[in-house]
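Checklist before submission:
- one chain only
- standard amino acids only
- sequence pasted in full

Submission:
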Amino acid sequence: MSDLNSFKSEIDLIVFAASHGYFIDEKASAQNYKMMRNAQDDKIAVMLNGENGQWVYCSNRDPNDKGSIIDFLINRGYERNDWRRIAATLREWNGEETPLKYM
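Returned file contents:
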């Protein structure tokens, strides 16, 4: 079972964001990041941090909307202190079993 920090590098945030309705905007993307948009015209840049190997993102519309996959979920409706729900979501996405005590 992984801890929350390991999800930041284990789960490709580009693929995860795509599963939440974002699509890659190839024209706005560059070699070191992918620009992604959703139907509500939210726009985020997603990249792999070369220093620590963790996926990060930042919004072009809201300077406070940035960070890891955990921040991505929190900024899209998950409660900041609902670590069990966040962990369960990321474990499910990562193909890990969620222990019953977290359900």
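Reviewer check: Residues 99-103 have pLDDT under 50 and may be disordered.
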